[in-house]
Amino acid sequence: MIIGQSFIHGSREAIHAVNPVTGERLGPAYPGAGPQEVDRACALAEQAFDAYRETTQEARAEFLEQVSENLADTRLEIVERANLETGLPNPRLEGELTRTINQLRLFARETRSGRCIGATVETALPDRAPLPRPDIRLRYVPLGPALIFGASNFPLAFSVAGGDTASALAAGCPVVVKGHSAHPGTSELVGLCIAKAIKTTGMPEGTFSLLFGSGNEIGASLAADPRIKAIGFTGSRSGGLALMNIAAARAEPIPVYAEMSSVNPVYLLPEALKGRADSIAAGLSNSMLMGSGQFCTNPGLLIARADANLASFSTTLADLVAAAQPSTMLTSDIYQAFESGVARLLKNPHVELLAKAGDKSGPNQCRAHLFATTAQSFLADPSLHDEIFGSCSLIIRCKTNEEMLELTAALDGQLTATVMMDQDDDSSFVRRLLKVLERKVGRILFNGYPTGVEVGHAMVHGGPFPATSNSRTTSVGTEALWRFLRPVCYQNFPHDLLPESLKDGSSTPQRVTF
Amino acid sequence: MIIGQSFIHGSREAIHAVNPVTGERLGPAYPGAGPQEVDRACALAEQAFDAYRETTQEARAEFLEQVSENLADTRLEIVERANLETGLPNPRLEGELTRTINQLRLFARETRSGRCIGATVETALPDRAPLPRPDIRLRYVPLGPALIFGASNFPLAFSVAGGDTASALAAGCPVVVKGHSAHPGTSELVGLCIAKAIKTTGMPEGTFSLLFGSGNEIGASLAADPRIKAIGFTGSRSGGLALMNIAAARAEPIPVYAEMSSVNPVYLLPEALKGRADSIAAGLSNSMLMGSGQFCTNPGLLIARADANLASFSTTLADLVAAAQPSTMLTSDIYQAFESGVARLLKNPHVELLAKAGDKSGPNQCRAHLFATTAQSFLADPSLHDEIFGSCSLIIRCKTNEEMLELTAALDGQLTATVMMDQDDDSSFVRRLLKVLERKVGRILFNGYPTGVEVGHAMVHGGPFPATSNSRTTSVGTEALWRFLRPVCYQNFPHDLLPESLKDGSSTPQRVTF
């Protein structure tokens, strides 16, 4: 564990990584945090907050850039260890580390721009009738120490120095990370990159800590700690709901940004299926198979009109799935959950198995499955709406366009929806579909695949419940910063007591109203 | 009641307004809504949502402006009825109606500007390595039907057509108002202004409904209705907490924007007290007495160093309070709560009564009270931190600056904090104080009075719990719009299927990144 600038061995039961490819336990042991370590990390974060939030945007940008440099310098060790702990192939981990580095740099640029201060200046109108207007100025300030949970499925981009951490640090919030138990070694290597950057750039010690712990106890006690003011989480629906309940029951309730579950419907329109069934099948099988399907945006539902084109497409996709190699999942728990989800579909009399991938050759291997059902069955059976985390997709055959709309209206909130459409497809139907989808999802995409989330200013990785606990935000992209900020108004301040960003002639971008 | 374009008599127990000045029940009866009326209002709102959210910003602006015109045309009737139902004097109600009208116009302008669409455009980079960037575009869309509770203390500016309603309608959310039982006639007159504007400007019928009901049952069933997607509330802490619990327990949790309780500390620095004790005492007595102190931003705590200047200031303020006329409170419930709050302080052995206003001459009259205690007593007794809604302030005598900081750190979240400071006051101490206050409050003001909230772009009427349920927002000013919006990303859209605001060359302001 890392608490501030101290490398600490916890006092509680240790966690060990397990190589999911072999099932073997990896050394070393990572002792878990006890109440003392929780208290120490929160106390340091609280202590750091005032100094950290007062650092300039430039200083915070440099800190984030230093973290990214340290990650780049540690690339080989991080990728090697992450490969052992997650079973993910090196090229994927290389790519993910690059994304993590670029993400930190993007947040550094956004912080430097000063845009997220949201500075707004309304100068006094002393002669206004019937009442004069006082000088009022607004800026956004950070919430306080944030608790971030490492995610298993993105051991770099959504773990210790991932998107949640980057956005909270950029906003000015110290971060306490509860490291994911599946990759403690990776977490520690990355955590050291942050701790070193804190030292190099002179940030306050408590700006970052990393705690380990088996089970849910440490996460729960961190979430309940009064010094923690916001929570970022990517993981299961049950985990997210547990955190929401803890946060709501606190003496001071705090916001929880939990990204939880999504089945990411893909709509295959008739002309698209007719004209390019093979390329769509290839693209979709790639999207559902990659990383053993362990993506929040994995395409879990494929929705189309039940016609000859769909039949032929289904055969093509089934062949690709049947030919797929089984691949190792991240953890034994995830593998077990996948198996039981698949078993549930296999037992369902209204669901047809179209294909499954070849035999396993090792532990924790995901065999991709492709199923089919009808819209009527899907509408009648809520269990078919649940996410199965892994390479498993369900084709839904619709009799009519109206049925497709009805089905869409019955979906839970989702991270994404995808429309495969060609020029000759019925655009008036698509417009109706989009109206329904806009209320259900955070991102709608055309003629692409939902996996592979661009990190930019216009990205939304979010969506209505249960995709997330808070549809008004995103966990990917620069809009994520606003999750950790709140507005404060400064009325009739002596000019020299105003924050720099709100002074007349400040270099921070200001919305000025006269 | 008003449900869409229908004027309906409810099927449940009626509510009656009571003239608080006389205690007499006023006609007519306003029958309460039953489950059928709740269902009908929610169904209409849901039905209206798609059409309403697709109206242009210009059309929504014109609708809001039409509401404001209708209010102006009904000014005499509204003020007359509000005066009967609330006991508030006509000039106050005139001013509040003007504020309500201006508020609607401000939101109309903000909507028209397109700023709250938050349009962000990142065009494709097909040649980017290692992966091309897709075209991604973001806009904010409305959440869905909003439930707004009328507030008793602002029967116009925070009731049926008040700030919450204006911001939700401006954002594109249909609104169902649960009218406050203390002013049903005023609510109905104002509701008719909205309903008429809907007809005149061709908005969908279900864009607005107004329901009455005695007790909490109607509000609770509206809050639990799955078609409601956000809640706006100004009122008691217990009421806000009840709504937070209902919202969190829903199958789909929704955001609650509850503005609850605040004691609005005022810091009186030594030089300011020395130089202008009389004018500060006059200003503070005015701020605490006006409207019987029934303001969320009423100055409940006056904090100063215990010295001769404070002693003399206290005497001056006590004289003003003692000379004050008792004034009628809004409702008998509010009056009872005030009386029991004051009784609690009177019984407290560590609290000294400095002054109380003269004898009452009618029912429900608030006699202003001024108390004093020490910082040590305040720190030791959590009950002294609770809001007493009405004209009641507590002077807190501090021995040292450090004690003042300690006291500040122990305060709950607040809507406002005020600093009375002169040039010769110790600015380095004030800087330390501001650092603590910034974490506790939504608005800090200098040398002014917290009552009288400017409605503008830079206003924050919000703050950490328990001032509000969500510190990241404001319920006054144009930033309030964002409470009812969520981001959606449009990836690789065929250009003609994009929302108008995201098309190339749109007149909507866009943040464009290349």
What is this structure's SSE topology?
The structure is a homodimer of 514-residue chains.
Chain A: E1 2-3, E2 6-7, E3 12-15, E4 18-19, E5 24-25, E6 30-32, H1 35-53, H2 57-73, H3 75-86, H4 90-113, E7 120-122, E8 136-142, E9 146-149, H5 163-171, E10 175-178, H6 184-201, E11 208-211, H7 217-224, E12 230-234, H8 237-249, E13 256-259, E14 265-268, H9 270-289, E15 301-305, H10 308-322, E16 327-328, H11 332-347, E17 352-356, E18 365-366, E19 369-374, H12 375-380, E20 392-398, H13 401-409, E21 414-420, H14 427-438, E22 441-446, E23 485-491, E24 511-513
Parallel strand pairs in A: 7-24, 9-10, 9-12, 10-11, 12-13, 14-15, 14-21, 15-20, 19-20, 21-22
Antiparallel strand pairs in A: 1-2, 1-11, 3-6, 4-5, 7-8, 8-23, 16-18, 17-19
Q: What does it look like?
A:
2 copies of one chain form a homodimer. Chain A is α/β, with parallel strands linked by helices and 514 residues long. In chain A, 39% of the residues lie in helices and 19% in strands. The first copy, chain A, is built from 14 helices and 24 strands. Chain A has helices spanning 35-53, 57-73, 75-86, 90-113, 163-171, 184-201, 217-224, 237-249, 270-289, 308-322, 332-347, 375-380, 401-409, 427-438, and strands at residues 2-3, 6-7, 12-15, 18-19, 24-25, 30-32, 120-122, 136-142, 146-149, 175-178, 208-211, 230-234, 256-259, 265-268, 301-305, 327-328, 352-356, 365-366, 369-374, 392-398, 414-420, 441-446, 485-491, 511-513. Chain A has a 7-stranded mixed beta sheet with strand order 2-1-11-10-9-12-13, sandwiched between helices. In chain A, helix 3 (75-86) crosses helix 4. The radius of gyration of chain A is 24 Å and the shape is globular. The mean pLDDT of chain A is 97. At the A-B interface, strand 7, strand 8, helix 8, helix 14 and strand 22 of A face strand 7, strand 8, helix 8, helix 14 and strand 22 of B.
